[in-house]
Amino acid sequence: MRRVLPFLMTLLIGCAGQTSRKPPIEIFADMDRQPKYKTQAAGAFFADGRASRRPVAGTVAQGQLKEDAIFYAGAEGGMYAGRNPLPVTRDLLVQGQERFNISCAPCHDRAGSGRGIVGARSMWLATSLHDQRIKDMVDGELFDVITHGRRSMPGYRFQTSEQERWAIVAYVRALQRATSGTLADVPEELRQELR
Ligand code: HEC
User: How far is the CA of 167 from the centre of ligand 1 (A)?
Assistant: First the structure.
């Protein structure tokens, strides 16, 4: 009996492969039928037959008024913002470091060299963030690259908030600064100790 019982159970439940005109016996209906529309589906309720609705013209959803062009787009009037609109504090840099290590380091490496793990295992090479060309970019352009991506680099606007992107920009600046020090940056009394 112990062997027969599972066999009988399989017979009872496991008939999913057969077609029939009768409605299936549902022991657990789970969520097979849901009173909802799928994205872009047609619907009978509205006259234009579209289930997905556009926002009402001239309205803004709560919390979605993005008036500050510099903060939200990194540019205003077709010009990139010259400087990070957020005050660069220790907290911002710590946050930027955390986000950079999550979102950028896989390709650009934690130091920004562009030799991250992705490049090491594929032909998909990232740019070194210490290139003079990248150092010369204004903060708004860096923000734009992170937001929309550029050429073979994907954008990160869905993974990061605007605030986080400005934190990353600040941290990239700190990384760049860390590799471009000169003797003049060292206090005079410490210069003899340099080797
Ligand atoms: C999936 C891999 C990948 C990730 C993650 C990534 N990048 Fe890139 N990045 C690239 C590649 C590849 C390029 C070179 C793009 C090209 O020139 O085709 C690049 C180029 C760049 C450039 C130079 C753009 C230019 O004008 O040449 C900057 C700046 C940059 N990335 C910053 C970032 C920052 C900041 C992050 C984190 C938010 C990030 N990247 C995350 C792959 C990546």
Answer: 16
